[in-house]
């Protein structure tokens, strides 16, 4: 009886974790699409559910195997240990929600598993070193890839794509026949329709990446314990993510990104593509990593690169050596970009020729909020690892 109750508790916590993942990840993936009125919240939830499940079913298997049997041996994942690890992940989600900051569930889950491994003397230090190394390398890659895009490509992409939407929806429902079908709304140009389709495709890619990296956070301990099969675990996580997408995600779809930055649509899509590509790659090689951390570093890198166009490379080197005195760089650059429904008729200014006063209407990001986010990203896995170690080391838990 106690065994059955413990398993039900573990499944409940797994669903809770997946539910929260769906609530937060849907806003990140489809916030731009919903904000630009390309898709509805209901459609965004459906797409999130399908593509997150696809990501977990394909690439996400590798992350589940890493977290469910390589950081510590599968023999250490007793049912009570698995429930304990999931409890710490759920606790981290609760703390992050109270502070209004999205916690890195991947980092927190790995921290809790590492605490179990240290307490039982079974931690695979080589695997942990590889994971932590990628945690340090991935944000640096995200920053510099987006910095180079911001410095050398962003103005040309902004002028060429001109991703915007006119008032009203891009598509309307045609009910002239028995079966309703979508029809292009009046006033929607072909360019705008293509741009809208691009926004949706990138949102689906982001959802795939979120499923690939986050499915393991919900079910890897239970799969590792042998109490839940791999495929049923993926389906359970996918269903929980979908539940979150259809419920609490409606709020995150409206508010995503407001505290950190006021990104233009093109910038948001670049951030999504780069961060999703990086996390999909890491998931493919079995490394659990944070999509939120990579996305934030993409935002900062893109903004820095965009702002650095006001000076040449030699001037940037001088600024780096001598400090900010005399610098023309502004971190407000991304939010300054103009938007129109037609191609920008003005030629792109060359590097070093742009006027820095034109790049400063609003802040790119709130430094205090960003500092709080980064601090909690460091603290939550550290707290999870320490708490997990103390619990599994000193509490007389059965089966350990």
Index terms:
two-stranded antiparallel sheet, mainly alpha, 2% strand, 400 residues, 2 strands
What does this structure look like?
This protein is mostly helical and 400 residues long. It has one domain. The protein is built from 13 helices and two strands. It has helices at 2-35, 41-57, 60-69, 79-99, 105-120, 125-161, 190-225, 230-246, 249-255, 265-284, 291-307, 313-322, 367-394; strands at 171-174, 181-184. The protein has a two-stranded antiparallel sheet with strand order 1-2. β1 and β2 form a beta hairpin. The longest helix is centred in the middle third of the chain and has 37 residues, at 125-161. Residues 257-261, 326-332, 338-345 and 359-364 have low confidence and may be disordered.
């Amino acid at each position: 009886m106690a065994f059955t109750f413990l398993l039900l508790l573990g499944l409940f916590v797994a669903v809770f974790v997946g539910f929260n993942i769906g609530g937060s990840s849907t806003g990140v993936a489809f916030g731009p699409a919903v904000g630009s009125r390309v898709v509805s919240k209901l459609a965004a939830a459906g797409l999130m559910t399908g593509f997150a499940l696809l990501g977990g079913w394909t690439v996400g298997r590798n992350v589940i195997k890493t977290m469910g049997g390589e950081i510590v041996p599968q023999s250490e994942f007793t049912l009570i240990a698995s429930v304990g690890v999931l409890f710490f992940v759920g606790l981290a989600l609760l703390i992050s929600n109270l502070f209004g900051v999205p916690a890195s569930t991947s980092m927190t889950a790995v921290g809790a598993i590492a605490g179990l491994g240290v307490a039982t003397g079974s931690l695979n230090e080589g695997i942990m070193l590889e994971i932590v190394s990628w945690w340090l390398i991935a944000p640096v890659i995200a920053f510099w890839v987006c910095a180079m895009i911001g410095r050398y490509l962003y103005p040309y992409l902004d002028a060429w794509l001109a991703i915007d939407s006119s008032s009203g929806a891009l598509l309307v429902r045609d009910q002239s026949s028995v079966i309703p079908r979508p029809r292009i709304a009046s006033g929607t140009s072909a360019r705008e329709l293509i741009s809208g389709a691009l926004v949706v495709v990138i949102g689906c890619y982001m959802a795939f990446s979120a499923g690939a990296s986050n499915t393991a956070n919900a079910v890897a301990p239970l799969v590792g314990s042998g109490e839940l099969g791999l495929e049923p675990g993926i389906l359970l996580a996918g269903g929980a993510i979908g539940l979150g997408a259809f419920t609490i995600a409606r709020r995150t779809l409206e508010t995503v990104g407001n505290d950190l930055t006021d990104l233009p649509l093109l910038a948001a899509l670049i951030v999504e593509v780069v961060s999703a590509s990086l996390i999909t790659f890491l998931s493919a090689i079995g490394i659990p990593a944070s999509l939120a951390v990579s996305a934030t570093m993409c935002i900062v890198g893109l903004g820095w690169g965009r702002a650095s166009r006001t000076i040449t490379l030699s001037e940037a080197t001088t600024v780096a050596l001598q400090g900010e005195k005399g610098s023309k760089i502004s971190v407000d650059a991304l939010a300054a970009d103009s938007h129109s429904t037609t191609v920008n008729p003005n030629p792109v200014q060359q590097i070093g020729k742009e006027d820095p006063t034109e790049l400063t209407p609003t802040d790119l990001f709130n430094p205090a909020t960003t500092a709080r986010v980064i601090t909690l990203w460091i603290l939550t896995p550290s707290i999870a690892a320490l708490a997990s170690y103390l619990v599994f080391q000193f509490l007389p838990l059965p089966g350990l």
